[in-house]
Amino acid sequence: MAYLCLILMYLNIMNNAPNIILVGPMGAGKTTIGRLLSQSLGREFFDSDRVIEENAGADIPWIFDKEGEDGFRRRETQALHDLTQEYGSTIVMATGGGAVMRDENRDILRKGGLVVYLYASVAQQLSRTSKSNHRPLLQNGNPKQVLTDLFKLRDPLYRDVAGLIVETDSRNPKVVANKVLDAIKRHLNKESAC
Questions:
Q1: CATH number, domain containing residue 28
Q2: Which helix (H) or strand (E) holds 126?
Q3: Number of domains making up the chain
Q4: How far is CA 10 from the centre of its chain?
């Protein structure tokens, strides 16, 4: 009976879990982990930054250049709203690192699903983003200082919006994805015990 209960709980969790929304700094692995989670859960994956680019017909550096960060953030709010409303509770979504900067976005994220903060240290972020030219906030000045300043500003916001926190430092993406799945199961298990 206990074994059957465990199987039923697992199926219930996998089939009835809310949207899984990944937040965290650039370089935390949100897109990579998100794709792995979507495969494991059999759900569609969206990267909010890619959705913004598709909707704008331009890449993020161009949007930042022409519309500034505020213009980009307005587009981001619309994308987050659309993704959390349009697909019910059947998606895995990776957000941009700054998605938590607006109060409105944090409300959308909280209401839109289970938010998982993929924590990465500044050193890990620097290592993972050092060769990227697709990150407008790192194109000027000292990337380590920029990442440190962003971490100080955003870490409390990630923690505020998150239902779960999973550390990603120096871990293989598959290991992190499995840790996230386990954390989701434990979290949802508390809500629906046999």
A1: 3.40.50.300
A2: helix 122-129
A3: 1
A4: 23
CA-CA distance, 16 to 11, in Å (whole number)? 8
Domain for residue 10, yes or no? no
Task: Identify whether 9 is part of a domain.
Answer: no
Cα separation, 25 vs 146, in Å, equals: 12
**pLDDT tens track of the chain, all 194 residues?**
555 555 555 555 555 678 999 999 988 899 999 999 999 889 999 999 999 999 999 998 899 889 998 999 999 999 999 999 887 678 999 999 999 999 999 999 999 999 999 999 988 888 777 655 565 555 667 778 888 898 999 999 999 999 999 998 777 889 999 999 999 988 887 765 55
Please write down the HEC assignment for all residues of 44-109. EEEEHHHHHHHHHCCCHHHHHHHHHHHHHHHHHHHHHHHHHHHCCCCEEEECCCCHHHCHHHHHHH
Nearest to 49 by CA among 91, 81, 96, 108: 96
